[in-house]
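Continuing the batch. This is chain 6 of the set; chains 1 through 5 are on the previous pages. Same settings as before, nothing changed between runs. Recording input and output for traceability.
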Amino acid sequence: MKPLLLRCLFLTSTLLMSGSVFADMYQRNVLKIQLSMAGYADVAIPTEGAANVVMSFDDKRSQQVYVDVNPKKINGGAFRAIYSMAYRSKEPLPGARLQQLLEENATLAVGAWSLAKQEQYSIVIFIIKLDADADSDELKAAIKMAAIRGDILEQALSGNVDEL
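Output for chain 6:
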């Protein structure tokens, strides 16, 4: 499988010289290969935004994890955001809980909690920024970590409601 992967990457990389349409197609193909090699071959890759991976747990719960299709470029490198929503409500998360998440961020080696607005909703996500060229084991581990962190906080905040 590796020689095929390398040939695909080589051929598609030559298309990068032709413009951003090919660059976007290349990134979708790279992500599709990465997810497939990580065990998520059935995940649809949208033309933009994020691929949606659903992680199922033994206790009948599940958690959605999103993987950005197009990596963000920084100083010659690139990373993909892998994130899982743990809270979505019209009510903001209480300050004490936000303080707790910020303190937890200081102890994490990988990933962090982030607060954002989505239309009229306050959302809390666990986000991991992973090298865009990460291998399938690293991608799989990041997806699993985001899912577990997101589901644990969702349970803590909502009881046993499982909607994210």
